[in-house]
Amino acid sequence: MVKLEDAVIARLDKQSHHFEILVDPYAAWDYKHGKEVNLDYIFAMEEVYSDSAKGKLASEEVLKEVFQTTDFLTIAKKIIVDGEVQLTTSQRNEMLERRKNEIIDFIGKNAHDPKDMTPIPPQRIINALDSAKYKFTLNRKKEDEINEVLLVLKKAMPISLEKITMFIEVSATHSGKITSLLHRYDLIEEKWLPSGGLTAKVSIPVGLKSKLITELNNITHGSVIVDVLKQ
Fold first, then answer.
1. What is the pLDDT of residues 57-104, one digit of tens each?
2. Residues of the chain with pLDDT under 70
3. Who contacts 120 (Cβ-Cβ below 8 Å, separation ≥6)?
């Protein structure tokens, strides 16, 4: 459990009633936005309040009326997802910076310049967003904001998130050496051959094609079959 002094209020107004729980701000925010969180550490108290500052608990009758249950975990999840997690200014700024870095990292890893099929450096993305005076927000799902950021970037540069499927085959001599590399990408299929060799299919951003081929050639000393499969 989070310490009481480190907790913030997650609150929900529903059916003319007010509900509050005390939560870890970072874990609650992550859970609210779809990330996997260990719920054992998210709550300061396993109590649902109508006014936490006064220590006033919500009655069982009201909980049953609004949530059709008195189970704390079921109700708490609902309050976090459907309600509001109150953050301090410092926490909100930290969350915004994390959101910004996550989105830039995602685009940097998955986007490419469709003109020459090369990756787009993160600093170029940052410069374009700064020039457009884009402001990141915590009010939308990250996936929705990624789409908005892409729309902004498309006004400043050619950019695409197109992916390709690569077929890879190696002999038994090198098969064990490339498995950890393949699992860094979106591994669609992996088949071990009777000879000990390996075939695999991976989905990658177009811009990472040359990088993956170079990595495979370095590991296998050129003894690898690589092909782009038709979509």
1. 999 999 999 999 999 999 999 999 999 999 889 999 999 999 999 999
2. 230-231
3. 107, 108, 111, 112, 113, 157, 159, 207
**Model pTM?**
0.69
| Spatial separation of the C-alpha atoms in residues 142 and 152, rounded to whole Å | 15
How many CB atoms are located within 10 Å of the residue 76 CB? Answer: 24
Domains of the chain, earliest start first: 4-85 (3.30.1250.10), 89-154 (1.10.10.900), 163-229 (3.30.70.240)
Q: What is the DSSP string of 75-120?
A: HHHHHHHHSEE---HHHHHHHHHHHHHHHHHHHHHH-EETTTTEEP
Measured between alpha carbons, how far is 143 from 147 in angstroms, rounded to an integer? 7
Instruction: For residue 194, give the amino acid letter.
Output: P
